[in-house]
From TrEMBL:
GO terms for biological process: proteolysis. Residues 1-21 are annotated as: Disordered. Residues 12-21 have a biased composition (Polar residues). It comes from Culter alburnus (Topmouth culter). This is Calpain catalytic domain-containing protein. One of its GO terms (cellular component) is cytoplasm. The active site is at C104, H265, N289. Residues 1-11 have a biased composition (Basic and acidic residues).
Length: 505
């Protein structure tokens, strides 16, 4: 018999919900805070101690001298004056990447999380406040303890840290702040390093991981050389919604191209705009390099003469600042970047119809060697043992405006083998199949699949999460999530997002 499956409902206050996150490693922030305050002592985290075990083993080429590391509190590092958690709010320009850790994937997600201005702050304030609780400071009830929240495999967790930071010569060796006495970026990175197992466990990663961990929402991926013609319209609507957008460059060519684009690097998409140039509309994309420098130098860059061809009103978009952020045309964007990821709480922005509201369901299950880990369809004798999910898609309401080429269903499959350290997690090749059904009932046996051709085959990937975005006609379908090889045990989360009324078993 397959293991019981669990559904997650965020409308409740169950443990693991946004309003009631789980205490990571059973560390209760309020209890630890009150304990430290009552003893009049500064908190030291025994589960992520200020020593080399929390740094982890970094690659030799990083050339970090562990003997020079000193763990110091912000009060010892702040200059000038006393430390602050935030200074003039939270901004994508607050942080700078450290030289000892290749975690641009994490920093680009921070940039996406904090890519706001006075007009757009309200769009993301709930997401920001969920990840970075606002009621924290170095003055009011200060006891050297802070906490942050992340979404991990279907559950929100609350992560406690102390404020002891690894430094060399009084400089943080990982993420730092551009304002010397502001510490939210450094502390956020420390909390995420604790979740990953160590700082070294953050070295290299996929941007989708951090995006999902910041939102617990919908992740969608677009391969830009195959992008739909209406992608800029999707990005425009996304920019006006509570979404996070990032993009990645090709892993080829020189480390930095002549036009200023860094190879094999992750950037944040911070905005889109349409301007009129010589009477013609131009679709622009604004991009941020998490390094805080090294910008695009060609058309529509900070000093491009093309800005002289736009109206005074459109000139407001031009920023001639050496801060790593720049504009480029949509055409150049799709040429220089290979992939773009969007993560959001709800994908309603995908449709032009304001009345369209996507619905979601998330289910938890396990592949267990010998019972429910049947492998891919190449394994004819065992494939049918995999968990099976039935989906019935209803007719789409006539009120919805269907954009040509648009999809109506997104399926996401995420795996977790529950290993503590991120770098030690064994990721299997995972994927899923979708079959059209004709009234069959019960657990379907091997005979059902013998002559069946799936209507959707997700490409197997050695990733934490794989997703597919597609159109399915109304009807009944069967979704079979699986590992590529039989006999591989892991937990999984299967999520379905649809703009139809969808019944999921």
């Amino acid at each position: 018999m397959p293991p019981p499956l669990e559904r997650h409902d965020y409308t409740t206050d169950n443990v693991g919900s946004p309003t009631n996150p789980m205490a990571f490693q059973d560390q209760d922030y309020q209890k630890l805070l009150h304990k430290s305050l009552s003893r009049n002592e500064l908190y030291i985290d025994e589960l992520f101690p200020p020593n080399n075990s929390s740094i982890g083993t970094l690659d030799k080429e990083i050339n970090l001298d562990y003997n020079k590391i000193k763990w110091k509190r912000p009060s010892e590092l702040a200059s000038p004056g006393k430390p602050f958690f935030t200074v003039d709010g939270i901004s994508r320009f607050d942080y700078k990447q450290g030289s000892k850790l290749g975690n641009c994937w994490f920093l680009a997600a921070i940039g996406a999380l904090t890519a706001t201005d006075e007009k757009t702050w309200f769009l993301k304030k709930d997401i920001i406040n969920q990840v970075i609780p606002a009621d924290q400071s170095f003055s009011n009830n200060y006891a050297g303890i802070f906490h942050f929240r992340f979404w991990r495999f279907g559950k929100w967790i609350d992560v406690v840290i102390d404020v002891l930071l690894p430094t060399i010569d009084d400089n943080p060796i990982f993420v730092g702040s551009k304002t010397a006495n502001e510490f939210w970026p450094t502390l956020l990175e420390k909390a995420y390093a604790k979740v990953c197992g160590s700082y070294a466990d953050m070295n290299g990663g996929f941007i989708s991981e951090a995006l999902m961990d910041f939102t617990g929402g919908v992740h969608m991926e677009f391969v830009l050389n195959e992008a739909p013609a209406h992608l800029w319209n999707i990005m425009d609507r996304a920019a006006k919604s509570p979404t996070l957008m990032v993009c990645g460059t090709y892993n080829r060519g020189p480390p930095v191209s002549l036009s200023g684009i860094v190879a094999s690097h992750v950037y944040t998409v911070t905005g889109v705009s349409k301007v009129m140039s010589k009477g013609n509309p131009v679709h622009l994309v604004r991009v941020l390099n998490p390094w805080g420098g090294t910008e695009w130098t060609e058309a529509w860059s900070d000093k491009s003469p093309l800005w002289d061809t736009v109206s005074k009103e459109d000139l407001k978009w031009r920023e001639n600042l050496d801060n790593g952020e720049f504009w480029m045309s949509m055409e150049d964007f799709t040429k220089n970047f290979v992939i773009m990821d969007i993560c959001c709480l709800c994908p309603d922005f995908l449709d032009r119809s304001s009345g369209c509201h996507w619905k979601s369901q998330r289910n938890f299950g396990k592949w267990i060697a010998g019972t429910t880990a049947g492998g891919s369809m190449d394994n004819k004798g065992t494939f049918w043992r995999n968990p099976q999910f039935r989906v019935r898609i209803e007719e789409l309401s006539e009120d919805y405006t269907h954009e040509e080429g648009a999809e109506n269903l997104l399926v996401s499959l995420m795996q977790d083998n529950e290993e503590r350290n991120r770098s030690r997690k064994k990721l299997y090749n995972i994927g899923f199949y979708i079959f059209k059904m004709s009234g069959e009932s019960g657990k379907l046996s091997a005979e059902f699949f013998n002559d069946k051709t799936p209507v959707v085959v997700n490409t197997f990937g050695n990733l934490r999460e794989v997703m597919e975005f597609f159109w399915l006609d109304p009807g009944e379908y069967l979704i079979v999530p699986c590992t590529e090889n039989p006999g591989e045990t892991a937990s999984f989360v299967l999520s379905i997002f649809s703009k139809h009324e969808t019944h999921f078993e």
